[in-house]
Amino acid sequence: MAIAKSVFAHHIVGNTFAYGPSDWENDINLAKAAGIDAFALNIAAQTDYNDAQLNNAYRAAESLGFKLFLSFDYAAQGPWSSSAVINLLQRYAGSPAQFKVNGASFVSTFEGPDNSDDWRTIRASVPIFFLPDWTSKGPDGFRTTKLDVVDGAFSWDAWPQGATDKTDESDKSWKAAVGSKAYMMPVSPWFYANLPGKNWVWRGDDMWHDRWQQVLEVQPNFVEIITWNDYGESHYIGPITGASGIPDGAHKYVDNMPHDHWRDLLPYYIAAYKSGSSPAVTTEKAQLWYRLSPAAAGSNGGTAGNAPWEPPTDANAVVQDKVFFTALVKAPSTVSVKIGNNAADSFQATSPGPFHSSVPFNGRTGAVTLTISRDGQAVIPAVTGAAIAASPPNGLTNYNAWVGGSG
C-alpha cells in the first residue's frame, strides 16, 4: 500500500473556544504557507463547543483547500464512547477537507489504550486509517497487545529526559515495533509549563533543527508537529492572537513570547523530508530562539527539570543559556550573532542548505542581532531579536523561548 508522506500539526480545539470562522481561516492560511498538509484536531470528550468549532474548522478548510482529521483525546476529559467517535467520524467522512489514506478517514488519539477494543466496533462502522498515540504502552507493549487493531502508531515521545539532547532512538524503536504498518513521528520545538499540577521543563535548545534532521534519517510515513497552539506547554508554532486560548496561569510565560518564526524553515524541512534529499534553497533566511535571561538569574518558580515520573533534575541544569539559530543559505556564507554591544561570534556556513549553531550568553546582555553575509555583502537584512537581560524583570525565570527570524 503506497502512502504519501505528509506533515501535520496538532491543533488543540480546546484552545479555540473564542474562535470565529476567520480565526480558523487565518490558522489554515499560515499552515499552508508553511507546507503543513493538515491539522490534527485534538478534541476532548464532553466539551460543549466541539461541534461548533469542528464545523467552523471544516468549513474553513473546505473553502481553502486544506485537510483536517480528528484526534480523540482520552486523557483531558476521560474516555470517548464508541458511539460518539463513530458519530463524528461519519459526520465528516464525506467532507472534501477530510484527510484520507486510500479512501479511509485518517484518525488518531491522545492516549486511550485501555479503550483499544472499542476501535474494532468503530472501524466496523466507518472506514478509517487508525494511528493512535498509545505511547504509555511503549513500543514493546504496543506491538504485543495492540498491533492487530491499528494501521500504525503515533509516538508522543517528543522530548528528551534531563540534561540531554533528543535522539531518534525511540522513533526507531516505534518504527520497528509497527513493522510494515505506518509510523507517525513527533517533532516539537520546546516544552515548558508552570501550571497547577504541571510544572517542569524539558530541554528544547537545538531540538527544532535536530529533529528535522532525524526525520530525514528515520523517514517515517508521517510527521506530526507538537503543537500548533498548546500555549500552556510552550510548544506552539502558531500565532498568539486575541482569540488564543491561553490557559489561566500561562500568560506570565506566554505573553510577548512569539513562536511564529519557527515556521519559517518548515517549507524547506518538509520538502527535504518528502523528497528524501536536500532541495535547492530558493529563499535565504534565518531564525533564532532563546530565553530572555540566564536560567539561574531568577527563581525557578518550583519548576523541575523532568516530569514527575522521571528522575528529579535541576531545571537550570537541563536548559542551556544560549542563542540558538539556523541560517538557510544558497552558498557558503558567514553567519554572525551579536549580543548587545559585545563583539559578534561568526561562523562559516560552508555549503548550501541549513546551517545550525548556537552562541552562549557568557554574561552578555542586550538585543540580539544575526546577519548573513557573502563576499562582504549582506545576504538578508539583519535579524534583530529581543534583548537578553541580566535577570528576569519579575524575578521569576521564564523557561519559554522567544523566537525571531527574517520571515
Could you please describe the fold and organization of this structure?
The two termini are 38 Å apart. The strands form 4 sheets. Strands 1, 2, 3, 4, 5, 6, 7, 8 and 11 form a 9-stranded mixed beta sheet that branches. Strands 14, 15, 17, 18 and 19 form a 5-stranded antiparallel beta sheet that branches. The protein has a 4-stranded antiparallel beta sheet with strand order 16-13-12-20, with no helix packed on it. With 407 residues, the chain is α/β, with parallel strands linked by helices. Strand 7, helix 6 (169-178) and strand 8 form a beta-alpha-beta unit. 23% of the residues lie in helices and 28% in strands.
Topology (SSEs and partners):
Blueprint: E1 6-12, H1 21-33, E2 38-44, H2 50-64, E3 67-73, H3 82-92, E4 100-101, E5 104-110, H4 118-125, E6 128-131, H5 138-145, E7 152-154, H6 169-178, E8 182-187, E9 191-195, E10 198-202, H7 207-218, E11 222-225, H8 251-254, H9 266-275, E12 285-290, H10 315-318, E13 322-329, E14 333-339, E15 345-349, E16 353-360, E17 366-374, E18 377-378, E19 383-388, E20 402-405
Parallel strand pairs: 1-2, 1-11, 2-3, 3-5, 5-6, 7-8, 8-11
Antiparallel strand pairs: 4-5, 9-10, 12-13, 12-20, 13-16, 14-15, 14-17, 17-18, 17-19
